[in-house]
Amino acid sequence: MTALAVEALGFAYGARRALDELTFELAPGRFGALLGPNGAGKSTLIALLTRLYDLQQGDIRIFGHSLRHAPRLALRQLGVVFQQSTLDLDLSVQQNLAYHAALHGMPRREAQARIEEELLRQDLGERRHDKVRTLNGGHRRRVEIARALLHQPRLLLLDEASAGLDPASRLALGRHVRNLCREQGLCVLWTTHLLDEVEPSDDLLILHHGQRVAWGKAGQLGDDLAISFARLTGDEALGRGHVREALRANLDPQARRSGFSREHPTEEPQA
Ligand SMILES: Nc1ncnc2c1ncn2[C@@H]1O[C@H](COP(=O)(O)OP(=O)(O)OP(=O)(O)O)[C@@H](O)[C@H]1O
């Protein structure tokens, strides 16, 4: 069974196309990284996944349930950590979770059991009575992950979850979330614009001008992801002329051998 299937998704703001025939799949237990420069269409995809926007073209299936035809069943399988934190800093970790559970109508006894499980799963057991204000950024993110998982979804969406964290906390958070995938079979879609958050074993989707320009195992895209990213998105800041030759030499044959697909090749970055 596929955890997430995005099928020929298209979306436009009036005449402005933000997503164009976007298609990709993630399996249970996989960590999917969604990478794209500003304006690539990441936020639009998230707005569609979370039903902030109605679908225009195509469909999204979450564990087989169509967001178009069975949205309630589909969303039941989805947990979301948004970029902007909505934790109450003056409540304790446990109170934040209990508050969320109550708001969503979870019976008190069930909520207590789930909160307990998630606190342990997110290594937050010892911080349960601490006010969120006293937690560092990485721990606050874990509280949000615990909260997003209270209803036991099997797909977790994290939108720029590492924003504002220092480099060590970013790495630690990434490790933590990948462990959830490996050990608990959770499927994760992690959006970022930071290349160093992507690991070779991740499923990587590179989005550019609303189109999928690359899709496959990140490690198969090339030795230097920064160069490949610049090549695929024509990112001036990353891809100056001197890297183009290196790319021509090693990325294309490697991509062909590995089966990593580069679609809709974009124009060459201008030197
Ligand atoms: N409300 C809107 N009205 C009109 N155009 C929009 C609107 N929101 C986004 N767009 C356009 O749609 C395209 C995709 O934008 P989107 O915000 O989804 O990209 P993004 O990858 O999330 O970028 P960023 O990282 O800068 O948020 C861009 O061309 C953007 O200008």
Automatic annotation (TrEMBL):
Residue ranges of domain ABC transporter in the record: 4-234
Keywords for this protein: ATP-binding, Nodulation, Nucleotide-binding, Transport
Q: Which SUPFAM superfamilies match?
A: P-loop containing nucleoside triphosphate hydrolases
* The family this protein is said to belong to: Belongs to the ABC transporter superfamily.
The record's section on Pfam families has: ABC_tran
What GO molecular function annotation could you give as one example from this UniProt entry?
Answer: ATP binding
The protein's superkingdom reads Bacteria
What protein am I looking at?
Answer: ABC transporter ATP-binding protein
